[in-house]
Amino acid sequence: MTAPRASAPRAPSSRASARGLILFLNAGDPSFEVLEDVVFSLDEAGVAWLELAVPFPNSVTDGPTIHRSAQRALDRGTDLDATLAFVARVRPRLKHLRIALLADWRHTVRGLELDDFLQRLEACDGLLLHGVPPRIRPRAYERAHDLGVPLVTTCYAGSSPETVEDAASNATAYLYLVTSSRTGAGPPDRKRLAPVIAGLRERTDVPIATGFGIKTRADVREVLAAGSDHAIVGSACVAALEGAADPASAMRALVASLV
């Protein structure tokens, strides 16, 4: 397992750099051959993390752009094996970029033996388990900790204190703060997020990454100024590649537009 290269929490700032970005993509969209060039362009740009999803259908937390991307990847036959093989191929050649694997519990993980799954993540810098049932989550987190798998945990800006504490106490890669439970809920609000992030700071030393609805440079600067270490860009990242003639160039342009 690749040891996580944790970045120290930084003081709130309205300025952005690629180091403050986490970008989301579905594995297999575009094809792995093209995606390899995209990943290296992110590394060259200094982006902090790529959140790479094993594609799964009909995510209730995502909008149509990500749904289309996931379906294209699934239509290409993309699965866990292909995704992990891709990560193992590119990860040793990356200088800066870290890769967090996003795996949906129901579609990808549920039918596997948990320890076997976790032990296969050697090339990944983090794991985000999507949709893991609450009754299973404690054991999944415990086994990940025991096996040295860095975890990305999640909570919402309006989550209960118990949920916030669970996320903060189990995050070892970074903590994903979701700004809203509604897709398309609008841009982030610094005044609303700042006290939430301050509360998380009291509970964890890992970097805090804020996402959902972040599409522009102004959005990125808003969440960084609220105290977040990273801004997570999902749909806008996927949309930038959808139909792009030169996906690597399109990704470089996106990063430049965000910082």
Overall shape: globular
Low-confidence stretches: 2-14
Series of H and E elements: EHEHHEHHEHEHEHEHEHH
Strands ordered across the widest β-sheet: 4-3-2-1-8-7-6-5
Structure classification: alpha/beta
Brief synopsis:
The chain is α/β, with parallel strands linked by helices and 259 residues long. It contains eleven helices and eight strands.
Layout of secondary structure:
Elements: E1 21-26, H1 32-45, E2 49-53, H2 64-75, H3 80-90, E3 98-104, H4 105-109, H5 114-119, E4 126-130, H6 137-146, E5 152-156, H7 161-170, E6 174-178, H8 190-201, E7 208-211, H9 217-225, E8 230-233, H10 235-241, H11 247-258
Q: Can you describe what's shown?
A:
The protein is α/β, with parallel strands linked by helices and 259 residues long. 42% of the residues lie in helices and 16% in strands. It has a single domain (18-258), classed as TIM Barrel. Strand 1 (21-26), helix 1 (32-45) and strand 2 form a beta-alpha-beta unit. Helix 1 runs parallel beside helix 11. The longest helix is centred in the N-terminal third of the chain and has 14 residues, at 32-45.
Task: Sum up the structure in keywords.
259 residues, alpha/beta, globular, eight-stranded parallel β-sheet
